[in-house]
Amino acid sequence: MRSPLHHPMTYDMVNENVVRTRAAMLFLIPVWILVIFYNTINGSAWVVDTATLEDTWETNFAGQIIYQAEMVRQVYDWTPQTYVLLYVLWEMIITQSAKTAWLSPMVWVAGLLNRHHKPIYRPYQPKKFAWKIGTLLVTACLCFFNPVPTAEFVNGVTGMELLSTTENWMPRWTPLATIPMCLTFMWLEAAAGWCAGCWVHSLLVKVGIFKDKCETCIPSEA
User: Fold this and answer.
1) Which of the given ranges, 77-81, 108-112, 189-193, 195-199, has the highest pLDDT on average?
2) What are the φ and ψ backbone dihedral angles of 88, each rounded to 5 degrees?
3) Which of 22, 119, 125, 141 is disulfide-compatible with 110, CB 3.0–4.6 A?
4) What are phi and psi of 75, to 5 degrees?
């Protein structure tokens, strides 16, 4: 089955309008996760159970009465965000192949929204490279928010204790780097039509690593 992402006659070209609309929809996900992660870092407010307030019959150096009470803070569960990130990872992976791109619901929605717009076709290979970068960024976020399952999987596959199962083995700055990068790349793709991954792909073509030249990847060469 051919998805709205691809040219009706060839799989080597993709509709830029569909790509940009899909990027705009995906943009909302890292925004949501970044807001939640910001609240997690700063911590939730303390909630005091006034029914447990009890006078200790002591005062501090300022002469203020000291009370003791039960205080609680919200515990953040990253299960919903993990499922959402797994869906984004799935989107990134399946659209890298013309044979599986039709499985993407967002591609079909983006195609429906652009059904009255004239298609603008661009080479497929640079887009696939860009989505590979997206796959790595999403995978890094998933590993950070699920360090123990990731460590257990890696240790089980390798048969060695390569990763710790008692503490987060990934740097604390991982989501602070990957989530803003996703936001920036998706915004540039959706709003400005500039694909960071395609730009990197064009540089790798220039140095001879890739052979599929894309004349439309860099505006100055278009």
Assistant:
1) 108-112
2) -60, -40
3) 22
4) -100, 125
Residue type present at position 204:
L
Residue keyed to tokens 């360090």: 147
Distance (Å, rounded) from C-alpha 12 to C-alpha 137?
25
For residues 220 and 116, what is the distance between their CA atoms, to the nearest angstrom? 29
193: left (phi over 0), alpha (psi -120 to 50) or beta: left
Angstrom distance (rounded) from CA 216 to CA 199: 10
What SS3 string covers the chain? CCCCCECCCCCCEEEHHHHHHHHHHHHHHHHHHHHHHHHHHHCCCCEEEEEEEEEEEEECCCCCEEEEEEEECCCCCCHHHHHHHHHHHHHHHHCCCCCCHHHCHHHHHHHHHCCCCCCCEEEHHHHHHHHHHHHHHHHHHHHHHCHHHHHHHHHHHHCCCCCCCCCCCCCCCHHHHHHHHHHHHHHHHHHHCCCHHHHHHHHHHHCCCCCCCCCCCCHHHC
pTM score: 0.79
